[in-house]
Amino acid sequence: MLGIGGAKPVAGQADNVVKCSIAEAYDYIGRRFFENYRKWCPQVVEVEELTKPPTHLGTRGRQVTRERGIDCESTFEVSEFAPNSKFEIKGVAEPFRSAYELTGEGDGATRVSFTFELQQLDLAMRPFQKLIRTALQDGAIQTIENIKALLEGTPA
Predict the structure, then answer these.
(1) Does the 10-152 domain belong in CATH 1.10.10.10?
(2) pTM, full prediction
(3) CA-to-CA distance for 151 and 137, rounded, in angstroms?
């Protein structure tokens, strides 16, 4: 992949408060990632844990995502596994990062923040950076809405 030297990553970020404990949220997002990922991320049509369970720092996985009818396969690794705080995956060969950060909000509520970042763009994609950023932002908002609905047991 021919990247843009020195360019800032292109990212989408969203957060929301969910009515569940930080431990419940981390269990759902981090500890049971491979079980639940497809539930909050409908673009993921296939996900497979490549490392022996349980999920931990360094766990590897494979995913197939479908965007506008095009399937894309990638391998990723759990790059941060901080219980009740942060869960992050990074692409092994592809330059992406997905991070979930959790903070307690009191009264049994948790703020879940999600960031998806493309760390490099192909040179051919540079003219579309604004469109890509908008799509990533829309995707981040939808991801947080889906996680909130799933954790609270309400329809998305």
Answers:
(1) no
(2) 0.90
(3) 21
